[in-house]
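User: Hello, can you help with two protein structures?

Assistant: Certainly.
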Amino acid sequence: MDPHAPDDPGRRSQAGQPGPSVDDITGVASLAEPTRRALYLYVRAQPSPVSRDEAAAGVGVPRHAAKFHLDKLVDDGLLETEYRRLSGRQGPGAGRPAKLYRRTAREVAVMLPDRQYQLAGQLMAQAITDAASEAAPVVEALRSAARNRGHMLGDEVRRRAGTHSSQPAQLAAVREVLDEEGYETRPDPAGLTLANCPFRALSRDYTTVVCGMNLAIMDGLLDGLEPAALNALLDPAEGRCCVRLVSPESAPA
């Protein structure tokens, strides 16, 4: 074997950095089909596994089309399946278990855009610069930079919701903006759960820093929204962002 031969191009980029694997390329290619991409996004946004009928209704496609594309997503490693009787009955006459689909733990780079990690780098670089020039703690400077980012998102929320908008219109705009940022919002009885952290890879090793940054972004976004419909609450849990957005009535004293 030639020791000077280049690495496998499927594993390394020309710059010497890890490149996309064959599985990543397959996953991205699979999601290029619009119906398949819509079904994938629908399934990954649900808190529990969904049936073919639910997915078909959620995306607005025929059941046979949903079956074809869902099974293709399973073949490409983007979804997993399980079987369960939806009626809850057991024994003879209970019917066949339904095939249910859920997201896998695998991440596809195209679904978590590099701009989110680029944003984290920009905020951290801004914090280091500000801390050096102002002789301030870096953590405080990072939270200030993150809060300013939140203010920018809040401006976009107000623009989309419109002047003198109602609370439901503001809430819809908040969800729309945060979904575009990669947080995958889901309504819950207390407010909104952020089902995904756009800085997930960083949060595994730098949990406190990233959670503080997320909290500051949400505080900044919610600043100035009238009437105040939500508060940002640090509430870490497995499988979602460490921050939740809760109504004032549900926030702890």
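That covers the first. Now for the second protein you mentioned:
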Amino acid sequence: MAGRAVVEGRRPTMSVFSIMFVCTGNLCRSPMAERLAVAALRRRLGPAAERFRVWSAGTHAVTGWPMTAEAAAVVAAYGADPEGFVSTELTADLVAEADLVLTATRAHRSQVVTVDPTALRRVFTMTEFARIAREVGDGVQAPDPVERAHAVVAAVARQRGTVRPARPDDDDIADPIGQPMAVYQSTGDIIARAVDASITALVGRCS
């Protein structure tokens, strides 16, 4: 699948950890998150980043479109690579492949669970996972980054609902499509902070 990054193809063993980001059209929010996560993994893990697969999809996506020019500009401004991205429609098979699903909004989170009810304990909004992971990540000890990532997801699932946002809609990242560049930049900042906190928790504070 052209939209995937870091490692292509289906997950062969538990030695690889898969992350999927989800929004509506797979043109703005989830592509930005995907490419920022790839860059963060490579910064932290170097060659070991190949043990992580990252891709994105949209609940109402039309397969084969590039991310918007504004989203690509935001990705590039953070030092990540927007090139080669194409949109992908969310399917049950894609959900089943992912060890962690991070969505733009609570509605997307519900849609993922509707597509695959078994995903309940591994799907979170981006900001929800980041908030809880900040609290639990330092308590997870595992020398292997993939083992650590699985352990962090399990720990975050156990703590779901205990680390609450200031407002419920803080767990929703609004769609910037059709908005001015300043809105894209603001959205990108929210996504970048959530991705950084999530990847830090998943793989540890290595460099």
